């Protein structure tokens, strides 16, 4: 029986799937592909966190159902983190909740607050769950610039004045995936004031709060007076503690939004496995040397990548935060767009990156490079990319011939 499901029809083909299929085919043929495509930390979780997981898992009582809000100790650990890092006070019972990663929390909150036809304001380019969480829920997205400056505020005002119905929510993400842009408290304060005036919820994704280099620690929107009246913020253990597969994140802030998320989650899950939550509590409450080590690792990889590619003729802005470089496509290849350039880079240089079009149409002149290979592999990638760029005229000629044959 052939059936087109309504929500599936609203989702375009996953751009990254085409690159991933090409990567898998190349590896099956024996090619050594250096993979910068997915933001998947390659280092192990710190030992003291793993040890706590093992200890907790040995307790048979921990094998029962957990709770969808998260165990009290973990919510208290999150609240303590906000107090010492941002000087923000939260109630662990009404203003904090544990999620199965920030992605799950964003998607479920979108489902909780969105009615069919509701409009949400989302930066473009942005992480795919930011728009598509609302699209899956039946809403529609109006896009605003990703740059946290006066142009953003002007675009926000235009979007509100020209949207029917009025937008219900705004998504923010700084440090930004994929662009690595940062926002300061003055920007947050202006946006909070605007959204309070227009009755718009704010969903802030702060997943990369602890991955920053040569800049002050990124702020939380909840530091702005009155922000908790309209804002909720999502954080994650994935990048800060090398815990992506553990699927632990949080939402904190506005009681109404936290309550809505808690209610919908109560129908959908019983929370993460309790030993994982116990280990996450140990991570937040324990020594933070590992966080600094992880931050330094990404900084070292960033410097090898940016300096190496600059020497190869590919000038990429050095990201001040996140584990990504947002790289403009070299001028000779700009006409290809990000997907074709990514495929060409993999075929000729054996390097996989994420095409910018996968983060929105305004990302199509960029590729995202994840800092997920060690320095040795990164230098190897720089060498093959340099050779690729040096022979760009021949590469383009061969690529056009191949396109004509296969097209």
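-> sequence recovered:
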């Amino acid at each position: 029986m052939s059936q087109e499901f309504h929500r599936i029809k609203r989702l375009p083909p996953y751009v990254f799937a085409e690159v991933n299929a090409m990567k898998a085919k190349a590896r099956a043929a024996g090619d050594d592909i250096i993979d910068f495509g997915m933001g998947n930390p390659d280092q192990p979780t710190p030992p003291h966190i793993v040890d706590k997981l093992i200890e907790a898992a040995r307790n048979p009582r921990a094998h029962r159902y957990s709770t969808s809000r998260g165990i009290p100790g973990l919510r208290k650990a999150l609240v303590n983190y906000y107090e010492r890092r941002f000087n923000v006070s939260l109630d662990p019972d009404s203003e904090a909740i544990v999620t199965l990663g920030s992605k799950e929390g964003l998607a479920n909150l979108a489902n909780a607050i969105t009615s069919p036809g509701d409009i949400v304001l989302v930066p473009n380019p942005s992480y795919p769950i930011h728009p598509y969480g609302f699209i899956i829920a039946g809403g529609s997205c109006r896009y605003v610039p990703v740059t946290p400056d006066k142009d953003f505020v002007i675009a926000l005002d235009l979007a509100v004045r020209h949207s029917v119905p009025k937008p219900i929510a705004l998504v923010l993400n700084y440090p930004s995936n994929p662009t690595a842009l940062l926002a300061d408290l003055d920007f947050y304060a202006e946006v909070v004031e605007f959204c309070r005036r227009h009755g718009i919820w704010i969903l802030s994704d702060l997943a990369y709060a602890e991955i920053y280099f040569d800049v002050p620690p990124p702020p939380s929107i909840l530091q702005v007076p009155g922000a908790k009246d309209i804002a909720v913020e999502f954080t994650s253990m994935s990048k800060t503690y090398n815990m992506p597969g553990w699927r632990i994140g949080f939402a904190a802030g506005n009681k109404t939004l936290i309550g809505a998320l808690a209610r919908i989650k109560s129908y959908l899950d019983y929370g993460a496995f309790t030993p994982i939550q116990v280990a996450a509590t140990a991570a937040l409450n324990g020594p933070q040397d590992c966080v600094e080590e992880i931050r330094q690792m990404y900084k070292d990889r960033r410097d090898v990548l940016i300096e190496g590619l600059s020497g190869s003729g590919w000038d990429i802005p050095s990201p001040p935060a996140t584990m990504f470089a947002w790289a403009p496509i070299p001028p000779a290849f700009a006409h290809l767009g990000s997907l074709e350039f990514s495929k060409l880079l993999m075929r000729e240089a054996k390097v996989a990156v994420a095409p910018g079009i996968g983060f929105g149409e305004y990302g199509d002149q960029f590729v995202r490079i994840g800092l997920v290979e060690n320095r040795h592999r990164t230098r190897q990638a720089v060498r093959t990319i340099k050779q690729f760029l040096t022979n760009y005229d021949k590469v383009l000629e061969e690529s056009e011939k191949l396109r004509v044959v296969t097209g």
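The chain has 14 helices and twelve strands.
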